[in-house]
Amino acid sequence: MSEITAAERPAAPDWLAMSPAELVAYREAENRFRASKAARAILGEPDPGVTIDWRTVELPGRDLPVRVYRPSEEDALPLVLHVHGGGFVGTAAQSDWVNSRLAARLPALVVSVEHRLLAPETPLANAVDDGWDVLQHMVDHAAQWGIDPARAAVFGESCGGLICALAALRARASGLALRAQVLVNPVTDMTGTMFDHASIAQHADTPTLAVPQLRLIQRFAGPPPAEPRRLSPLHADDLGGLAPALVVIPTHDPVADHGRRYAERLQASGTSARLAEYPGAPHAFLSLPSVEPQAEAACAEILDFLRASLAPQSAR
Q1: CATH code at 203?
Q2: Domain for residue 174, yes or no?
Q3: Where does residue 47 fall: left (phi above 0), alpha (psi -120 to 50 degrees), or beta otherwise?
Q4: Do the domain assignments include residue 29?
Q5: Which residue in 72, 192, 215, 226 is deepest, having the highest Cβ count within 10 Å?
Q6: CA-to-CA distance for 126 and 214, rounded, in angstroms?
């Protein structure tokens, strides 16, 4: 991706009037910015002790880019599968700060999925499949990637949190034993009640997420499947027996209640779930360490949670 300056970052469009062509043009320009060195003044510098590379995962019917964060350790590493935020815009490179720190300090192999972004031809179900399919591929080809398949966790932000929550549900159904799930400011409700949560009205227009952007996500999510709850982990029939969860909630966030209600449902179902709230922090704060001081504390909490969850059995 070519380097561009902060001055060349695209202006925020009219979210509700955006055409599909305008969406593509905007996200291409915005993602070039997020992957540029200029953006690191906002998104933070990666940990120098980690090698960061783009690789390709060959999946049935498609090849998918992933961004790989590898520490210097050569032994079989635990796996943290990461899914970045942004339903219709976003790139794995925007999460270099947090992912490189987790890779270096756990240590672990962190693999961030460059999932298909929302557009008329790529509904939300495609991104959900991308997250799950890469997780399965990594576990099935553990030796090739240098990971311990018995020590795997998922970590998602915003729409990536939705994808990871659904991956945890699929893992339970398939017998894949995840050690943990970390959900940061997750969107968990894509049904008709998506906008009925109190936090939507309380924080409808914030700099990092506003209701018109959520409506754009809903618009491009695609026609509802036969069972609309299939893409809404909050409305899953049974949340018992899932991997232990850490749900990180910035309180100044339209979807804060999506995460709160999901943590409550996990707890009510008997799944271990810790709710960690960061007062006054905005949506996507974990990706903004240079301007949001609570990102450091949240990263440390995630690190501690994953370190305990991914420890070898002999050390637990």
Answers
A1: 3.40.50.1820
A2: yes
A3: beta
A4: no
A5: 215
A6: 18
Distance, in Å, from the CA atom of 143 to the CA atom of 189, rounded to the nearest integer, reads: 36
Query: Quick check: is 9 in a domain?
Result: no
What's the rounded Cα separation, in Å, for the pair 6 and 40? 10
Q: Give the max Cα distance, the chain.
A: 56
Q: For residue 230, with 0-12 CB atoms within 10 Å meaning exposed, 13-18 middle and 19 or more buried, which class applies?
A: middle
- Asked whether the bond before 186 is cis by omega within 30 degrees of 0, the reply is no
What H or E segment, with its residue span, contains residue 164?
helix 159-174
| Confidence check: pLDDT of 166 > 70 | yes
CA-CA distance, 107 to 307, in Å (whole number)?
8
Task: Note the pLDDT tens digit of each residue in 259-277.
Answer: 999 999 999 999 999 999 9
**Could you tell me the pTM of the whole model?**
0.95
Exposed, middle or buried by CB within 10 Å (0-12, 13-18, 19+), for 86?
buried
Structure tokens of 142?
A: 């553990």
- For residue 168, the one-letter residue type is A
Please check whether residue 20 lies inside any domain of the structure: no
Q: How many CB atoms lie within 10 A of CB 76?
A: 17
| Residue in this structure with the two tokens 């320009």, named with its chain if needed | 29
- Residue 251 CA to residue 114 CA, distance in Å, equals 27
Q: pLDDT, tens digit, for every residue of 112-124? A: 999 999 988 999 9
Domain that holds residue 132: 41-311
Distance CA 283, CA 253 (A): 5
In angstroms, the CA 223 to CA 104 distance is 41
Domain count, the chain: 1
How far CA 85 is from CA of 73, 92, 149, 156, 313, in Å, comes to: 28, 9, 25, 7, 31
91 exposure class (CB count in 10 Å sphere: 0-12, 13-18, 19+): buried
